[in-house]
Amino acid sequence: MLEIKDLRVAIGDTEILKGINLNVNPGEIHAIMGPNGSGKSTLANVLAGREEFEVISGSVKFQGEDLLEMAPEERAHHGLFLAFQYPVEIPGVSMANFLKQAVNEVRRARGENTLDARSFLNRMKEKLALVEMDEKFISRAVNEGFSGGEKKRNEIFQMAMLDPKLAILDETDSGLDIDALKIVANGVNKIRNKDNAFILVTHYQRLLNYIVPDFVHVLYNGKIAQSGDKDLALHLEEYGYDWIKKEKEAEATV
Amino acid sequence: MPNDQKKSDEKQMLERMTKSEYKYGFVTDIETESAPRGLSEDTIRFISAKKHEPEFMLQWRLKAFRRWEKMKEPRWAFVDYPPIDYQDAYYYAAPRKKDGPKNLDEVDPKLLETFEKLGIPLDEQKRLAGVAVDAVMDSISVATTFKKELKELGIIFCSMSEALREHPDLVKKYLGTVVPRGDNFFAALNSAVFSDGSFAYIPKGVRCPMELSTYFRINAANTGQFERTLIIADEGAYVSYLEGCTAPMRDENQLHAAVVELIAHKDAEIKYSTVQNWYPGDEEGKGGIYNFVTKRGLCDGDNSRISWTQVETGSAITWKYPSVIMKGNNSEGEFYSVAFTNNFQQADTGTKMIHVGKNTRSRIVSKGISAGRSNNSYRGLVQVHEAAENARNFSQCDSLLIGDKCGAHTFPYLEIKNKTAKIEHEATTSKIGEDQIFYLNQRGIDTENAIALIVNGYCKEVFKELPMEFAVEAQKLLEISLEGSVG
Fold first, then answer.
1. CB B433 within 8 A of CB B467
2. Are A73 and B456 within 8 A, CB to CB?
3. ipTM of this model?
4. What is the mean pLDDT of residues B134-146?
5. pTM for this one?
6. Cα dist. B343→B279, B351, B410, B431 in Å?
7. Rounded CA gap, B46 and B21, in Å?
8. B439 contacts in A (CB within 8 Å)?
């Protein structure tokens, strides 16, 4: 589904990603972990198409097509979703209005019929239940006055509404208390199926107790330093990121 | 027999319509239908005679003209335009119908495209583009039933010319009481040469059951350049009035100087909504309408209420300050405004809230949006007189910038002469954030739609004051105006 080959990315003169290779297949959940500044969020944002990052070399294929050639909205139309680390507020625009436009744009791009008001409302109610949010929520302005936890749940709600092929969760767990974390994880587990895939970008192992990944990758200094299964995350939890750091330094001196 | 009555009404209406068509269609000597170029007492006599006005009206016009001759054009607004030669214009011409395009094939395709997007019916498209429209049965019967219903309630709603013929006493009593002849340069000019406009009178205790709109007053299309509107709500009456049309009107007249006067008696309420979309000029700033308008409402009686809502997206230059004088105790004034400027458009608009009576309250919500190389200014005065105990005002003036070549300015004026007044003013200036656009892009919404969504959200407080259907059209109109504003 997603094939990243030797991806190098800079912001200004600073190279942040220094050759990333990653394959994600349908039905898989990948966790990307790493210390602060290792490039986790950069990877998430480059995949979503944020402009301030410059791709120096490498390629990204998404369902066989060149992802890097696509505008951000085209990536969304092709089924790529980013749950933002810091969701922005859009004053005066109701959740219902915003989502109706988003869902219908995506459907139109895929050659599907747009949803009528009734089926759209039903769909919203159904997905709201998934993240245990009140119906009143849909008449509020996008993220305006939302608590930190509400903003993150809102991202998962939007993901459920848009039904993406590949969802990237950028530190969705940060700043969540344990109850909110369970709700978010529960939402993801209900959405996952054999045809879609997830990339969980996270600093902590905690989220992975609730969403069990198939693969764990440790990003260090712009490269994937180590890959493994869920045990790798537990190992990291026990020994900290210093363990990777030492190992890498040892490799360099050999 | 009510049915026969209805048929006869329709017949009369049809006759009137076709007759007026006939009259203009067979004019051969154009000179006799147009006043000569330039402005003089003769021009004014010509206009007044053409309209068969009562003598008092002619005298009133002449006084206004003499006053105007001594006045200077105001130059304090934050707008820039070359001097206007007032002697190089025509002040009265026969309706342009016969000069217009003969069918839609002759109309600018760009204009038609806009009509299409706004979903305007074909006959309406023709009317707006100035194509001669044959009498359409549908609209005639609508107009007839509409007029009849109003008449039963004692509501007078007609053109100013008709009002001068049919209700001269009412016009004489109220005309110029809120905006005097010599109020300002453009008001004086309008008083001297106004062509036509709307007149509405809502009698005591009557709640007007429908939105009064120029749209329904089909016979008054093309009233044009110097429009004069007078609306009176008698004790306990209520009326909501919609001015203008959401479609872009193509108009040859460059200078527009309208005057609108509203009078609300005791316990009365007037809501006045405008969507203005005159030709703004091209991308290089060539052409476009100069819109110099004086709009003022008088809350004459206690507990009366006047509310202005405007959505201004057109005109090359807008100079407009819909105001409320709160003379009655406990009276209320409101001003809700969205002003959008693009390319080289200039807008200097705002309001004046004059607190005279006790416990008067006013509220100002102004949303300016500038794009391209345009300049958008809010200019607002809040004045509290000595006797205005416990006056309250809340003002909120927001500016939104799209791109980095446009300007937004705020000029608030406060004149407070009573210590019990409570005045609040909030102002913000913001740019549409890259983060907001990217967030919407990531959800599948392209940049143009993303900006439209953000701008609509920003204007929501004003749009919600508009009658439902008008609000939907205003929203669409804003989206169309935004097109191409993102480089």
1. no
2. no
3. 0.95
4. 46
5. 0.81
6. 12, 24, 20, 17
7. 22
8. 84, 87-88, 90
